Amino acid sequence: MASLAFSSTSASPVALRGRPNKLAIGVSQSGACHVSARGSDRKARIFITRAVAVEKKVSRFEDVAMAPPDPILGVSEAFRACTNESKLNLGVGAYRTEDLQPYVLKVVKKAETLMLEKGENKEYLPIEGLVAFNKATAELLLGADNHAIQSQRVATVQGLSGTGSLRLAAAFINRYCPSAKVLISSPTWGNHKNIFNDAGVPWSEYRYYDPKTVGLDFEGMIADIKAAPSGSFILLHGCAHNPTGIDPTPEQWTKIADVLEEKGHTPFFDVAYQGFASGSLDEDAFSVRLFVERGFEVFVAQSYSKNLGLYSERIGAINVVCSSSDVANRVKSQLKRLARPMYSNPPVHGARIVANVVGDPNLFSEWKTEMEEMAGRIKNVRKRLYDNLSQKDKSGKDWSFILRQIGMFSYTGLNTSQSENMTNKWHVYMTKDGRISLAGLSLAKCDYLADAIIDSYHNVN
Ligand code: KET
Question: For the Aminotransferase class I/classII large domain, which residue ranges apply (predicted)?
Fold first, then answer.
């Protein structure tokens, strides 16, 4: 409830004679409080000098604490507020051109022109999303001739990009496998833990990154997956592991599949970078296709934020590869049932773009070329940064891990205070886990970045 209280410093209290039926209260620019009252038979105009009107509001949300800034998206907010000319945003994984400008793919513009020409309507989509998109996205992931698709064993539902698709799958796990646990890699994309926490799905971590080798702790990973309760969901990054940029080799993927099979675990893939790791859509789908071929039931969340640059269109999908078409039908019906009260049905624009690009052989091949260009630019930047670091750093430190990492990011190994030094002293905005987005770096800025990294690494504990 809101109430208005007056305190006056003037000696004489103001008495209103008569009963005004209207009372207007205002505060002038000078701070004087001005009360005017109008009665039906008389007018009173009262000025209370040097009076202060204090609005006392007692909110029912008084106990709501300020949320901390998001560890990734909060970095972009801080970057926007920085006025230093040298500033660099290497926080969020978003592709920039060599001029460090956001990039709309040419193929996306062409698809949008086609859509405009067709004059499509804005009717609601079905709960499951755009049918042409769902077909295209499953085929892109698994290959159009995949047996699981042919035998209609894949339940595909359009999601609100990668995040929304993961969240929908998490809600499904919570409802239909309530005692199951999800195992996530240590480290992983920062939002995974939030997603499972909010969906009420218990999770724990498996070892993944080995700081000593700056590589994969494969033994640790296998041991932890083996030790998990049978029937757990194992969250795996399909390619270009975020944040480490370290992926298992094909032989290691086979070994991981062996252990999952032995333990009756279900693989749950997060595929946010298909095409962005190697530049090839098929190569980057290797891990998912391997598990499907081996007969697993598999969850796969897909995103088109990065590979088609559709970040704000929120377009992605959740695919559940099931052991029969009958199960797939039922799983899909339940995913729709979960989606309906959450967001009813998904947005159409991004879905049409993907369906048009993947469904048109010319646009599809143009997309592949553009993706190779984007992946290629990141590889060039990676190489230049490595060269600059190796030339400038006279300590003999081996920086070659940067070249071995894959995808948009480099996991520099800088700790929290070193990462903070990068931002506070050098205006290089990055996440505090030492991850830098090479997609936000230009060749021209590598030299500056190398100086910042060397200073932070050697001069800050
Ligand atoms: N999975 C992974 C591994 C991932 O890196 C992201 C986004 C997503 C899913 C979700 O993307 P979406 O836009 O919902 O399709 N990662 C970048 C952006 C973010 O944090 O939201 C990032 O790590 O910078």
Answer: 86-453
Mind listing the pLDDT tens digit for each residue in 61-80?
Answer: 999 999 998 999 999 999 99
With H, G, I as helix, E, B as strand and everything else as coil, classify residue 89.
strand
pTM of the predicted structure, to 2 decimals: 0.87
CA of 189 to the centre of ligand 1 (A): 7
Give yes or no: 110 in active site: no
* Annotated catalytic residue 306: yes
* Averaged pLDDT for residues 330-335: 98
Q: Which atom of ligand 1 is nearest to the CA of 91?
A: 24
CB atoms within 10 A of CB 1: 7
| Closest to 226 (Cα-Cα) out of 252, 204, 206 | 206
| Ligand 1 probe mutation, 73, 90, 235, 242, most atoms within 8 A of CB | 242
286-328 residue pLDDT tens: 999 999 999 999 999 999 999 999 999 999 999 999 999 999 9
Q: Which helix (H) or strand (E) holds 457?
A: helix 446-459
Q: Exposed, middle or buried: residue 178 (CB in 10 Å: 0-12, 13-18, 19+)?
A: exposed
For atom 9 of ligand 1, the residue with the nearest CA is: 162
Q: Which residues are CB-neighbours of 131 under 8 A, at least 6 positions away?
A: none
**Closest-CA residue to 73 (of 429, 378, 449):** 429
DSSP 400: T
Amino acid identity, residue 216?
L
Alpha carbon 172 to chain centroid, angstroms: 20
Largest Cα–Cα distance of the chain, in whole Å? Answer: 95
User: Ligand 1: which residues within 6 Å by Cβ?
Assistant: 72, 92-93, 161-163, 189, 191, 237, 242, 270, 272, 303, 305, 311, 316
Distance, CA of 193 to chain centre: 12
Cis peptide before 187 (omega within 30 of 0): yes
Q: Which atom of ligand 1 is nearest to the CA of 237?
A: 3
